[in-house]
């Protein structure tokens, strides 16, 4: 039996003897077991680091790896109304040092939304060898981009022609500051997930 396991059992014995300390002891058991997440027990950020020079001041862009840059550009521009801002290609050690991905080259495109938000599309030359995101929005590490639209049903009809499908049916948010807003997730051929949102006006 491991040392951590012995610690866990001793805490459990304490819980049985003093029920009023149940919550505190359960937390101690979690922190002491060998299967505890690695981030438990880390020290909090120091106050002197919490100044403007150490904080994010803006979101610059969001990026998606795609299987076909041309098809992705068509979808975002023709399907969603973004504008193509620029395209480029990079290679060599730059990619490895920045992304940690050993790929010879990557072709990129920046598309800009009506509000100025930018989306980066990246087609890696060996992307098909690196795997694909799980086709579910609940997988750990999965992400989505939420887009505000005027007519959610019209957008759904339009993007379905490009191979994108809704996960379900638009639903109104039942409560809170966005009560009445229609929302639905849609997923494309590369398992990229978007959320469409139509405000209740």
TrEMBL record:
Q: Where is the VOC domain?
A: 58-199
Which Pfam families does the UniProt entry name for this protein?
A: Glyoxalase (PF00903)
**Record's keyword terms, sorted:** Metal-binding
Name of the protein this chain belongs to: Catechol 2,3-dioxygenase
From which organism does this entry originate?
A: Pseudomonas trivialis
Q: What is the lineage of its organism?
A: Bacteria, Pseudomonadati, Pseudomonadota, Gammaproteobacteria, Pseudomonadales
